[in-house]
Design brief:
The chain is built from eight helices and 14 strands. It is of the alpha/beta class and 248 residues long. The chain folds into two domains: 124 residues, 3-Layer(aba) Sandwich (Rossmann fold), CATH 3.40.50; 115 residues, Arc Repressor Mutant, subunit A (Orthogonal Bundle). The strands form four sheets. Strands 2-1-3-4-5 form a five-stranded parallel sheet, sandwiched between helices. A four-stranded antiparallel sheet has the order 8-9-10-11, covered by helices on one side. Helix 2 packs parallel to helix 3.
Length: 248
């Protein structure tokens, strides 16, 4: 079951799609304007976004670009045009897939399923391979790399598949990006990870201001109950990168 943000200004279409997607087991919430959609993504990150381009306040392509500035959530764009130039424009702007109007609810559900499967496969590759159960600190020689169902580092438990994290049995309330960063560092526990690798593997962008990473690290430290001056899990190795370790 996935959480879906449906961005559609037509109330009749919105209601019909919510009904169909809910029947396919998804948790659906909606927005009728671009700015509302951006606010929802930051406050209540979904697993996937369905974005109609014909919004009353912003051009849908601009919304897509803004979304990509704050999140890597998969986006399926609903468009009335299917010419190559339009499709290339949307994909270059950050869309993961597109669907041409008019379309059935079943077709949209199938598109979402395909995007979510690709996203899960990408997450598995990012955290080390396909679902399995291996220690976070290494793998047996010659074994096929696997992503653990849960990664344990000290009292920290991270479940990449369920996208949950717990510290000493208490669930951490993390934003999508905070979870991505924590899960990535946990999967590379005891290793110093450079900022360049974080940019490439977590942000998936060639350039993000250092301050952006620092803001997310600061938020993670606060939620882990530590400070940069007195780190327990997240240690900064000056001039090199970040290391997540079990407290000693």
């Amino acid at each position: 079951m996935a959480s879906v943000l449906l961005v559609e200004d037509d109330p009749v279409i919105r209601s019909a799609l919510i009904e169909v997607l809910s029947a396919h087991g998804h948790v659906v919430y909606s927005a009728s304007q671009g700015f509302e959609a951006l606010r929802e993504v930051t406050q209540r990150p979904p697993d996937v976004v369905v974005l109609d381009l014909g919004l009353p306040d912003l051009d849908g392509t601009d919304v897509l670009r803004m979304l990509r500035g704050i999140s890597q959530v998969p986006v399926v764009v609903a468009t009335a045009r299917d010419d190559d130039a339009e499709v290339i424009k949307l994909l270059n702007a950050g869309a993961d897939d597109y669907i041409v109007k008019p379309f059935s609810g079943g077709q949209l559900a199938a598109r979402l399923g395909a995007v979510l499967r690709r996203t899960a496969a990408g997450a598995a590759a990012q955290y080390g391979g396909s679902p399995g159960a291996e220690p976070a600190n290494g793998q047996q020689s010659g074994a096929i790399p696997t992503v653990p169902r849960t990664i344990q580092v000290g009292e920290l438990l991270v479940d990449p598949a369920a996208r949950t994290a717990q510290l000493a049995g208490r669930e951490l309330r993390l934003t999508r990006r905070e979870f991505d960063l924590l899960a990535y560092l946990a999967a590379h526990a005891d290793q110093v990870v450079s900022r360049r690798r974080i940019l490439a593997d977590v942000w998936r962008q060639p350039y993000v201001e250092d301050q952006t990473i620092d803001v997310h690290l600061s938020a993670l430290r606060r939620k882990l109950g530590e400070k940069a001056a007195q780190p327990r899990y997240l240690h900064t190795v000056r001039g090199i990168g970040i290391k997540l370790v079990a407290p000693r």
